[in-house]
UniProtKB/TrEMBL annotation:
Residues 109-293 form the DH domain. It comes from Galemys pyrenaicus (Iberian desman). Residues 324-431 form the PH domain. CDD domains: PH_Collybistin_ASEF (cd01224), RhoGEF (cd00160), SH3_ASEF (cd11973). This is Rho guanine nucleotide exchange factor 4.
Amino acid sequence: MPPVSSKVLGQGLIKLISDGSVVCAEALWDHITMDDQELGFKAGDVIEVMDATNREWWWGRVADGEGWFPASFVRLRVNQDEPPDEAWRPLATKTQDGGVEVPGSKEQMRTNVIKEILSTERDYIKHLRDICEGYIRQCRKRADMFSEEQLRTIFGNIEDIYRCQKAFVRALERKFNRERPHLSELGACFLEHQADFQIYSEYCNNHPNACLELARLTKLNKYVYFFEACRLLQKMIDISLDGFLLTPVQKICKYPLQLAELLKYTPPQHRDFKDVEAALHAMKNVAQLINERKRRLENIDKIAQWQSSIEDWEGEDLLVRSSELIYAGELTRVTQPQAKSQQRMFFLFDHQLIFCKKDLLRRDMLYYKGRVDMDGLEVVDLEDGKDRELHISIKNAFRLHCSPTGESHLLCARKPEQKQRWLKALAREREQVRLDQETGFSITELQRKQAMLNANKQQATGKPKALSRPYYLARQKHLALPTSLPQQQVFVLAEPKRKQSTFWHSISRLAPFRK
C-alpha cells in the first residue's frame, strides 16, 4: 500500500492503522537520540507508523528498531496514490468555464496541495488564537500565580507570531483562485512574508526554556488544574499546554515540504513557478537555521559535562561565551622566552580555544592549562624553516597573533594535513561567530545555569545522570476535574497532595567529546 495522504491525519490516520493498513512516512531530517525509547533514523528513511494517537510524537518502526519519534520530522505527502502517467488514462470532465480537467492530472494535484496549504493555515490560526485567548489572557488575570517574566518564558513571542500569521493567511486567501484553484499564485505570499518568518527563530530558541518552566510549575497541581481549566473554557482539543506550544516549532519546519509538494505540481510555464521555487529555497533556509539552533541547544549539556570532567578548571564557564565545539586535536605549543615545547590537547570552541595537559598515567584525564580568546586574533600561516620571533626551526606551524596586545601563540602540528585541518577549523570558527551575530543566536542564562547544574550533580555523584524524556514526550493524562464544580471555580482549587512522577527513564551515560 502506498503512503497515506496527510489528509487522513487525525482520526482517519488512527483508523487506518487500527484496521491493519501499513502507513509509511518519509524522514525529512536526521533524528539522533540517546533515549532508548525514541527511534533514531536518517533523512530519507521510510518509517512504518504504528501509533499516531499522540499528535506530536508517533510510535514507529524502521529496520529492526521501534520507538517514539517527532511527527514533525517526517512527511505524509498530500498526493501519494497517483499511478504513473503512462499507465493511467482516466476520463476527462468539463469545468465550469468549458475547459477540460483530467482527475489526477497535475492541475488537480496542484489544487489538492493548495487547498491543503489553506486548510492547515486556517487550523493553525485557530490554534494560535486559542493559546493567546485561552491561556495567555487567563494567566494575565492571575498575577498571584504568574509574573510577566514567567509568561514570556512559557509563551515566548507567540503573540507576535499570531499577528504575523493572521496577515499571512489573509494574503493567501487573496491569492486563492476560487474558480480555478490550480491557477492560484501562492509563492509570492511566502516571499512577501519571509522576513516575518524569522521571528520563529526567537520562539524556537526559547522553547526549551518553556518546557523547563512548565515542568517546574506543573509539579504543583494547582497549575495543572489551572491550565486544564483554561483549555476547557476555550473549548480546545484534548492536548496539554506543552503540546500546544510545540506546534509553532513543527509548523515552521513543515513549510518546506508543503512548498516542495506545490513545486512538484507547478509546471515551469506557470506564472507561480519561479516564486514557488524561490519560496521553497527561502523556507528551507529558515527551517535549516531553526534545526541548527535546536541541535546546538541540545548540545550544551554535553559541553557542560565535558567542562566538569576537566581537572583544575579555572575562570568562567565555557557556556558563558561558547556553545559549539568546532575542532579538537593535539598540537605542540611553543612558549616564550625559552622556546619551550609542550604537547597539549586543544579544543576549539566559538570565541575561545581551550588547551589541556594529558595525565601521564591516565591518558583519558585532562588538566586545564589555559585558554586563548579568539576574538580579535589573526591566524598567520607560517612556512617551514626558521621562525623570526623565536629563532628556532619550525614545521607545520601557524601563529595566533593579537596586534593590540602583542599576545602571540605559536602552534605546530605533526603533519601538514593536520595543520590544514586546523587552519580550516579556525576559519570555520570565525564564520560561526559571524553567523551567530547575524542571526542573534545565544544561550540564555537559564539554559546555561541548568546545564551546569546538571553537569555538577552528575560529577558529584559519579553516576550516570537520570534524564527525563523530553517534557512534551511524556503523554500525561489530564487530571480528572471535579464534575460538581463549575469550570470557572476550577481556577481556585486548593493544591492537592503531590503524587510521585512515573515518567522518569534512565539512559546510558553521554559520550564525551571525541576528536
